[in-house]
Amino acid sequence: ISAPSYPQAAQLQTGPKSSFAAIKVTDGTRIELSSASALEIVGDLSAEAGRTLRVTRGLASAQVAKQPAAHPMLFRTPNAEAKVLGTQLLLDVTAESTRLEVREGRVRLTRMEDGAGVDVPAGSCAVASKGPAPAARFNRSTAALQALYSFREGRGGVVHDLSGTGAPLD
Questions:
Q1: Which whole-number Å values give the CA distances from 115 to 72, 109, 126, 133, in the listed order?
Q2: What are the helix and strand counts (H, E) for the chain?
Q3: 152-166 pLDDT, tens per residue?
Q4: Which of 56, 110, 161, 163 is 20 to 30 Å from the Cα of 35, by its Cα?
Q5: How far apart are CA 5 and CA 2, in angstroms?
């Protein structure tokens, strides 16, 4: 799906069974949604004034092209905001928490309820939820990652590979 064809505040939702969607932004950024996920495009993705995407549920994987320092890409969820300058990341969103995994680069994760935040470097993850402030910790699953399965499909005979490394091993 080509992002410039979307009007402002467009929504993209994937179905509950074995569905998948991908968005390619004009700057080269690629965003993938697994099944039972929802994403809202806030504003114009082709603009130079920064880009904001709202992930309301599910699993979103992104390979973000380098962004201008003054206009970072923002991923907003019900509980957190991830500010990205250029990186590869994975967001797992539920109503109660947002889990951020950074594969390349660095992302600032800020909890919405109180502004508590943490810089998450490559190879690390952090969770924004009620309780202690988000903290970055080493994430073993990114070292030599071959495949990543969340098993969030719920039904059906296909489990999607969300690793973003090579051809998907569904």
A1: 18, 9, 15, 9
A2: 0, 13
A3: 677 778 888 777 666
A4: 110
A5: 6
